[in-house]
Amino acid sequence: MPAVAKRQPTLLSPFGASVMEPGTSRISPQRFAERLRISQSTLEIVGIISTAARLTGDTEKAFYWFRNEPICDYNDKTAEELVTEGHARAVKMYLDDLENGATG
To answer: Closest Cα to residue 46, out of 62, 61, 57, 28?
Structure first.
C-alpha cells in the first residue's frame, strides 16, 4: 500500500489569508472589500444593517430604519445620510450604544 502524505492542517483558506492584515490575526476591511469587489462603504452598510436587524428583530424594519428614521443625536440625519457623508463609524457606535441599553 503506498504511503499517504500527511496533509498539514491549515487554519485559513487562501481567501481568509488574503484578507488578513499583514502580520496580524485581524481581517482588513479594505482587503475584504477589494476581494469582494465592493466599496468599503457597502461593506460598512452590511454590518450596520445586520446590527439593526438584530435590534429590531426584522431585516425589513432594519432597512426602513436605515433609510428613513432620523437620528436625533446626529442632527436628525438618517443612518443612510450619515454613511453617505462618511460617518459609518458614528452609526455603528450609536447602534452599539442601543445594544448596550441606551434608549436612543
So the answer is: 62
Angle (nearest 5°) at CA 89 between 78 and 14: 120
Task: Report the C-alpha gap between 6 and 97 in whole angstroms.
Answer: 49
Please give the Cα distance from 51 to 92 (Å, whole number): 8
Q: What is the pLDDT of residue 91?
A: 96
Q: How far apart are CA 76 and CA 50, in angstroms?
A: 22
CA distance 43 to 20: 15
Q: What is the pLDDT of residues 53-77, one digit of tens each?
A: 999 999 999 999 999 999 998 999 9
Cα dist from 58 to 11, 49, 54, 64, 67, whole Å: 34, 10, 7, 10, 15
| pTM reported for the whole predicted model | 0.70
